[in-house]
Every structure is written in structure tokens, then in C-alpha cells.
Write a structure and sequence with these properties.
Elements lengths: L4 E2 L18 E3 L7 E5 L6 H17 L2 E5 L7 H14 L3 E4 L9 H10 L4 E5 L10 E4 L2 H16 L3 E7 L4 H17 L3 E8 L4 H14 L5 E4 L2 H13 L5 E5 L3 H8 L5 E4 L2 H16 L8 E2 L1 E2 L1 E3 L7 H7 L1
Parallel strand pairs: 3-4, 3-5, 5-6, 6-7, 7-13, 8-9, 8-10, 10-11, 11-12
Antiparallel strand pairs: 1-14, 2-4, 12-15
């Protein structure tokens, strides 16, 4: 199987936003070196907190301030676009932007405005369609992560039976992970049949409802895949509540995911390195502000398969904690 890669993201924005913005924070570290603004998909989930920590660490190393913002949830595209516009208006050294699905259509026009203002942009977490303005994209090999989860589930189940998926959206990273999972099974384990795919919208309650419905219709599932932490947690909780033997695999970590993994309710997860993603995003922005663009526009880093067997390894602990 091809080498599975993954990378980056980060989130933030400028201070002093309009009323539509959410909890912007700024970290010190500059001595008049300027400021970088990051606008993430959301502002408080554990994944984005890790991105923020990495971004702020890079800011301290490079002598710039880093502002961080994002909507409350990952389904507020209009609000995120307003935050991006505010960041452009403030003219920082550069901007990092992780586009929500609902911001994909409106963001290219704002990329043009950033270019007109002389503000370089680095996209992170999710590629942005329809614009060649960003100097780089720090993004995961999301399709590869889905394939990696599928490969592990084949080993866990013996490659036969029914499986289902709850995705955290219908486009972007969710679609890539979903499709990577399905395509791997179709090619390598045709006897492992995907019988249902639902969209949990990266919402815990909706993901739980979807998991309940799928398990009610298919109590004989041998495997269940969640494309993000919310969907994976919902699946694991419902499988445990019904005392089923269904193997649960997912993508992304959070304290609740790790707890369920330790309890044996999740068999394994494909984990990104959000700290490293945030750090790389800021490094690229600062370089771009000096006219130093990367030789390759697509920047990636490896994902890690985490189980109870390697959870305590130092390298894994740095990623999940």
C-alpha cells in the first residue's frame, strides 16, 4: 500500500473582529516581527487546540505573534468567510485558512482580495477548490487515511461481512476519507461489503442518531468506520451500548477517543499530527511574507495508526496528548 501521508492545519484570526467572530486569541513572541492570522474550521475542539499550540510555538520561534480564530462549529461557512474577510482587512504578514465545506464557494473571491492586498495565504487541513492564489496547501492525504483504516479493518475482521461508515460531511476531508475507505475495500477485500454510509455532519448528536439507525438496521455489522472523532465516538458508544462485537475504527484523536480506545471500545484510529500541522503552516506563512515560497505547493506529513499496543510510545504520546 502506498505511503500514507498527512498534514496540517491551524486556526486563527485577528483580534478586534466584528460581532460575528468568535474567541480570537493572540500569543506573544514577537519583537515587532509582525503577526500571522489563522482561521480554522472551529475554535475549541481538541484537534484545533493542538493546531493552535503548534502555530503559537512556531510564532515564538520565529518572533511573530499568532492570532487564532474560527467558528464554534464546522458547519458555519458564512461565519468563517466573515472571519477570513476580517483577517484580510487587517493586513497581517500572512493568513492560514482551513476552509469549511460551506466556505468553499465563497473563499476563492476572498483569495483574490488577499492577493490584491499583498497578503500571502497558506491553506491547511482541507484543500481549497477554485483558486491558485494560496502559496501552499498543508493538507492530509485524507484518501490515504481512509484506505489505511480500511486496511486495518480488513485485518481485524478477516475481510468478510458487512461494514458501515459515518462521515463528518459530504465533501472535502470527509469525502476523501470515506472514498479512500470504500475504494480500498472494493479493490482489496470485496467480501467486506459497505452496506450503509451516513453523514453525521461533525455533530455528536447527529452522529449518534446515525449510528443508532445503522445498527438497528444492520445489527450484524462486523466493522464500523468513523471519518472524524465525533463520528467515531458516537459509533463506539452505540456499539458498546448494544453489546455488539462490531470492530470500530476511525480517524482523529481526542481525550474521549483515547479513553474509548483504552477501554477496548475502539480497535484503532488513524491519527494526524495537528501540532506539527499548525507549526508548519506558520513557518510557511512567515517564509512567504519574505518572498520565500515552497518549491512544492502541497506539503504533507505521515499519519499514525494508534492502538492500545503503541499508545504509550513517546512519539505517539506527543501526537495524541
Amino acid at each position: 500500500m502506498k505511503k500514507l501521508l498527512i498534514a496540517g492545519l491551524s486556526a486563527a484570526l485577528v483580534v478586534g473582529f466584528s460581532a460575528c467572530s468568535n474567541q480570537s486569541t493572540s500569543s506573544g513572541g514577537s519583537s515587532g516581527g509582525g503577526r500571522v492570522a489563522l482561521v480554522a474550521k472551529a475554535n475549541s475542539a481538541e484537534y484545533w487546540v493542538k493546531v493552535k499550540e503548534g502555530a503559537e510555538a512556531a510564532g515564538k520561534e520565529l518572533g511573530v505573534d499568532v492570532s487564532f480564530n474560527g467558528p464554534d462549529t464546522e458547519s458555519e461557512g458564512d461565519k468563517q468567510l466573515n472571519q477570513l474577510q476580517s483577517a484580510i482587512n487587517d493586513k497581517p504578514l500572512g493568513i492560514g485558512f482551513a476552509p469549511q465545506d460551506g466556505a468553499q464557494d465563497g473563499a476563492p473571491a476572498l483569495m483574490d482580495r488577499a492577493k490584491e492586498s499583498g497578503v500571502p495565504v497558506v491553506i491547511f487541513d482541507t484543500p481549497l477548490n477554485g483558486s491558485d492564489v494560496p502559496v501552499a496547501t498543508v493538507a492530509s492525504d485524507n484518501k490515504g487515511m481512509g484506505a489505511q483504516a480500511a486496511e486495518k479493518l480488513v485485518a481485524l475482521t478477516g475481510g468478510k461481512g458487512k461494514v458501515a461508515i459515518i462521515a463528518h460531511g459530504e465533501v472535502g476531508t470527509a469525502a476523501a476519507r470515506r472514498d479512500g475507505f470504500k475504494e480500498y475495500l472494493a479493490k482489496n477485500a470485496p467480501e467486506l461489503q459497505v452496506v450503509d454510509v451516513q453523514n453525521g455532519e461533525s455533530d455528536p448528536a447527529k452522529s449518534r442518531d446515525k449510528a443508532q439507525g445503522i445498527l438497528q438496521a444492520h445489527p450484524d455489522l462486523v466493522g464500523f468506520f468513523g471519518t472524524d472523532d465525533d463520528s467515531t465516538i458516537a459509533i463506539a458508544d452505540e456499539v458498546a451500548a448494544k453489546n455488539l462485537q462490531t470492530k470500530v475504527v476511525g480517524v482523529d484523536s481526542s481525550p474521549d477517543v483515547i479513553s474509548l480506545l483504552e477501554q477496548g471500545k475502539i480497535s484503532g484510529i488513524v491519527v494526524q499530527n495537528p501540532y506539527g500541522m499548525g507549526k508548519k503552516t506558520v513557518e510557511l506563512i512567515v517564509a512567504a511574507s519574505k518572498g520565500e515560497n515552497p518549491a512544492e505547493k502541497n506539503v504533507v506529513s505521515e499519519s499514525v495508526w494508534v492502538t492500545t499496543e503503541n499508545l504509550k510510545d513517546p512519539d505517539v504520546q506527543q501526537i495524541v496528548n
